[in-house]
Amino acid sequence: MTLSLHAAGRRRLLSHSLKFATLALALSTAWVQPATAQTYPNKPIKLIAPFAAGGAADTVARILVPKLSEALGQPIIIDNRAGASGAIGSAFVAAAPADGYTLLINLGPPHQTVQFFTKGVKYDPVKDFTPIAQVATAPQVMVVPASSPFKSVADFTAAAKTPKALAYATSGSGSSQHLAGLLMAHKYKLSLTHVGYRGGAPALTDVLGAQTDAGILVLSNVLPYIQSGKLRALGLVENHRSKSAPSIPTLAESGLTGFSVPDTWVGVMGPKGLPPAIVQRLHADISKTLRNPDVLAQLQQAGYDVAEATPAQFGKQLADSTEIYRSIVNNSGITPE
Q1: Torsion sign over Cα 313, 289, 112, 181
Q2: How far apart are CA 333 and CA 183, in angstroms?
Q3: 251 pLDDT exceeds 80?
Q4: Of 7-11, 142-146, 237-241, the least confident
Q5: Could you point out which of 105, 130, 216, 294 has its C-alpha 20 to 30 Å from the C-alpha of 302?
Q6: β-pair partners for 147
Q7: Alpha carbon distance 128, 151 (integer Å)
Q8: Structure pTM?
Q9: 174 within 8 A of 332, measured Cβ to Cβ
Q10: Is residue 166 domain-shared with residue 90, that is, in the same domain?
Q11: Is residue 154 in some structural domain?
Q12: Which domain range does residue 167 map to?
């Protein structure tokens, strides 16, 4: 009888100990989560722009960073890591600790499409990143030098149906610009040669110098040259006009009936596994920054359409557009090299 009472007592003691340990763990977890949000950030943040200085991602980063640094209370260091259509900088972020101190500001495409063109990409564009905030859309426009004989889309397509291929410059393989050219060539039976650069800035230099027949480039980068008469805009590749330059028609409006590619976004992401508290803090402060009148004016003046999205909406858009572009690439018969 005595042994039975001792055994029962030990069982009760063990049960109480397990309940206490479970409660302690729950309380510690509940304490850690808000603490992460309260203490982050407590040191400078590195923002990787995976294209050359002067390109679209870099341009948006330099508009956002001053006010975003103020909101976060820490310096943000822009680090341009160009190459491989953004894959070098993106791979760096994918491999970084998920602590919120290494972030990526990128364009999509080529974020989700470089895998279709380049072998050995060391990350999954959807699974290996945490969407934080879509900042804006970056309209893409087809341009020719002012000295070009092509005064319209009809002139360009007529010339592209002759045996001699026309060359078009873009910021790199896998960009929405490249994909727009692929879709154009496939849909309208045009003879086009893609010339990809390491970013929009060097591509723009060669288009201005008439080293290529045309360019499909980010509107924000070429708008000053369109306005000054050094470049001629043939049309936007999306299915709608840009708020920042409403006088420029789409290619569909200009004669390529039914032509368009999805919007190109500029967004901020982190490595996979970024704690929700950090994602929420960053998203809230980016949204606050985008509502700043000076930031909004600078983005619009540079040719961007501000287009916020929640992390969940951003993630869905990333996954859905990946499949749309996969179809364009497959129809073009392209395989990774």
Answers
A1: positive
A2: 11
A3: yes
A4: 7-11
A5: 130
A6: none
A7: 44
A8: 0.75
A9: no
A10: no
A11: yes
A12: 140-236
